Amino acid sequence: MTQLDKLDLTQLRALDSLIATGSVTRTAEALGVTQPAVSNMLARLRDAFDDPLFIRQSRGLVCTPRARALQKPLRTVLEGLGVLYAPPDFDPAKAALTLSLAATDYAAATMVTPFMKRLQDTAPGIRLALHGLDTASLSNRLEDGSLDMALVTPEESPASLHSQWLFRETWLCVTRPGHPVLTETDSLDAFCATSHVVVSPDGGGFEAQTDRQLHLLGRKRHVAVSVPGFLMVPELLKTTDLLAVLPARLVADRSDLAVFAPPLDLPGFDKYLVWASRTDLDPTQTALRAMLIDTVSGAQT
């Protein structure tokens, strides 16, 4: 062990302050410690450097030649440590990295699309890798770094992840313009008599939340088509007499489709942004999460 191994960062900061101020009192105030504590540090510094370092005179502590020679290299060391401990600044215009994000096709269309536009405008060096949402492996992939964040519902989010609520989504009925059901949009009978298309992410399912709510009312609708994702449904509706119940953000602004409120109460669902502890304090990831959250908030219908 060398003499310098006996010193810690606080003692080096004390030495820097003593050289600059020549005052134990002012050094104690700067470090938030007592004057005896600074005196004890000075004793250890003198031992480590094998030099008095300071001579007490009427105007305060005066540096010895050894202390004066230490001033510049000590300042370099402390500034370097400051850079080491300070989080790096995130400059979107200069950032160059790949952000990996998992989302359903609905979340990709309604949230990731405007976020990607914002990245292209403000952070053109950031590439976005969009992944499908596999809830079974989500937590592991966020922890091992193959994903940075994900857009999920509460049911899809493991409790171990960090999360931020984004918004609550509602439902709208959607069909082609001129569909006969449009003459009775408030009729549950007409709603149930119409052929429906449902989204079954796992494939092949013919029941969704709407069906569960209908069951509570003792009613049933006819589901004619099951598809694995939301994005193909609007195109399917334009060329058929099918009806769909879709998230409002996905279809509220569609001028090529007829949109109306469901004739029964359908609970909405919450969307969250989730990430792992691995990136929770990372300045770049924190900035990108804030950018995504702000983008989603600004795009609310």
Walk me through the structure.
- It is built from 11 helices and 12 strands.
- By secondary structure, it is an alpha/beta fold.
- A hairpin with a 2-residue loop joins strand 1 (54-57) and strand 2.
Provide keyphrases for this structure.
five-stranded mixed β-sheet; 301 residues; alpha/beta; single chain
Structure summarized in a few sentences:
The protein is of the alpha/beta class and about 300 residues long. The protein is about 40% helix and about 20% strand.
Rg, rounded, reads 32 Å
Distance between the termini: 66 Å
Tally of contiguous helical segments? 11
Return the string of H and E elements. HHHEEHEHEHEEEHEHEHEHEEH
Q: Which shape, going by the Cα principal axes?
A: rod-shaped
Helix vs. strand class: alpha/beta
Topology summary:
Elements: H1 9-21, H2 24-31, H3 35-49, E1 54-57, E2 60-63, H4 65-85, E3 97-102, H5 105-122, E4 126-131, H6 138-144, E5 149-152, E6 162-169, E7 171-175, H7 188-193, E8 195-199, H8 209-216, E9 222-227, H9 233-238, E10 244-247, H10 248-251, E11 258-260, E12 269-275, H11 283-298
Parallel strand pairs: 3-4, 3-5, 8-9
Antiparallel strand pairs: 1-2, 5-12, 6-12, 7-10, 7-11
